[in-house]
Amino acid sequence: MSSTEYILQQIIYQMTQGALPFILLLIGTSNSMGNLITFTSKQLRSNSCGFYILCMTIFELLTISFGLISRIADQYGSTLVNQSRMYCKIRSYFVLCFPTTATYLLLMAAIDRYISTFVSVRCRAFIQLKVAHRMAPLVIILCMVICSHTLIFVDHQPTCGPQLGSYGLFYSVFLIVIGGVLPNFLLVLFGFWTIRNVKASRRRVVALQYLQHKQKRDAQLVLMIFAQAIVSFLLNSTRMSCYSYHLLTTNRPNSSFQQTVDNFLVQFSIVLAYTNYSESFYINTLM
Hints:
This is G-protein coupled receptors family 1 profile domain-containing protein. It is found in: Membrane. By secondary structure, this protein is mainly alpha-helical. The chain has a single domain (16-286), classed as Rhopdopsin 7-helix transmembrane proteins (Up-down Bundle), CATH 1.20.1070.10. The chain is 81% helix and 2% strand. The chain has 13 helices and 2 strands; from the N terminus they run αααααααααββαααα. It has helices at residues 3-16, 20-39, 42-45, 48-75, 80-83, 85-116, 121-124, 129-146, 150-153, 166-203, 212-249, 256-276, 280-286, and strands spanning 154-156, 160-162. α2 packs antiparallel against α4 (48-75) and α11 (212-249) packs antiparallel against α12. The longest helix is centred in the middle third of the chain and has 38 residues, at 166-203.
């Protein structure tokens, strides 16, 4: 065994059975608690963007708590996922549904801030709180529906996982496109459009002047969403690159070193996934 392979195996151990899963669980839970306290405040509770982020936070907490705790249980000897077909399907569904929903709720917050930069009163009517109260449940239901294929096609193979063949390919494409590339591309796109509109509005002479504290609050929300979009894009781009490489090499005959590299990339991509749902409060604090 080469020294590089030994180092990679030690890193894999820390990412699976070492301290890192517990650290992520602590950081992720604190992140969600901080957001819950912040976005249930009187000022932000009545803001449509704040409502989307509050809903996102709930699903981030579900992602971290359910996903990491079940993962830690697996690493420390639990075999329930490979013994119970029902648990296998439900766990696979939640592990996919919770983070997907959190991501698209963040996208709704980004779209909300983009619309808030419009001058048109008719367009700005879509950022009312009552609209957010209707859109957020709709997004949640849609995410629950589009992730429901796991309840049918994930099973023991003989261990818990997607069925081999065409569904395995579909599942991989779903993770990469629907769970990563599409929402993060839209997050960054709406973020840049929002910043562009904010800069343009500063150059315009507008007859109606908004209250200074409201302008400051809206500008801060725009900055928070844009920062989250950039961080999410960077983390997911790295994660999807690792996962795509794993898919491309998974059926090739590999040496012991290559298998270690593949395992490292898979575990690293999982760590990045949970990190992505553990950072929003800390980014908001820095803003």
